[in-house]
Please model this.
Amino acid sequence: MNMGMIWGIAKVAARNIPWGRVAQHAPAVFDLVGQAKARRAPRRGEVAEKVLWLEEENERLAAALVETTEQLQTVARTLETVSSRQLLIGTVAAVSLVVGVLSLVIAVVKV
Model:
């Protein structure tokens, strides 16, 4: 938009808007705006209740976090045990396979 277009819109608005009626209804508009602000602003008691509720919720969540952390530590220890047992079973299976192959070779050589 160039300056001429903006100036033209301002001229039309200045001529066609009934400024007397606008000024006549301005106090009512200001009252409505004030009422809307009053309704929108929270009361002190409501804010205190909300803060108290948030603090209680924070405590519940902190307790749940501690419980979850303990459970995760237990799961980690269990996984370490399972992993070490799996490694031991794999080692025993490999030794068993080697012993089986050697037994087969000895049996074939003796024949």
About this structure: The longest helix spans residues 44-110. The mean pLDDT is 86. Helices lie at 3-16, 19-40, 44-110. Residues 58 and 64 are 10 Å apart (CA to CA).
